[in-house]
Amino acid sequence: CFLLRGHSIGIRLIDDFLARSAVKKCRSYSETIDMIAQVAFKMYLGVTASVRCSSPAGNEFSLILDKNPLVDFVEELPAERASLCYCNLLCGVIRGALEMVHLAAEVTFLQDRLKGDAVTEIGIRFLRKAEDRKHKRN
């Protein structure tokens, strides 16, 4: 539920981000991740995230938030809602925004402060870059 709502938000939010940030086109996955961690998170959440590359291929990263403003006013989850991933909204937002700039990615929560972890960690694995399709004339 939160993932789908986040995805819809990300699809619309990317236009606002590109218009307000005046960023240039990212040329690599690491530039894209840095832009999310340093610029987008600061603009929309008021925090920055640290980045850790977790694959030799350079297509898997972790965004680590020491402070997650989405959980500031959330108390411990009740036992009957223990499986709820409240912050999955962020994963959906990131995935939706990346899709709109033609970057397919798998975005998941690896650690969640609401579940007792020390930090919030979001894993991002880029699946492929969209290919520019050129039509040949005969």
UniProtKB/TrEMBL annotation:
The keyword Endoplasmic reticulum applies. It is found in: Endoplasmic reticulum; Golgi apparatus, cis-Golgi network. Keywords: Endoplasmic reticulum, ER-Golgi transport, Golgi apparatus, Transport. Gene3D superfamilies: Trafficking protein particle complex subunit 3. One of its GO terms (cellular component) is TRAPP complex. CDD domains: TRAPPC3_bet3. Pfam families: TRAPP. SUPFAM superfamilies: Ligand-binding domain in the NO signalling and Golgi transport (SSF111126). May play a role in vesicular transport from endoplasmic reticulum to Golgi. Belongs to the TRAPP small subunits family. BET3 subfamily. This is TPC3L protein. It comes from Thinocorus orbignyianus. The lineage of its organism: Eukaryota, Metazoa, Chordata, Craniata, Vertebrata.
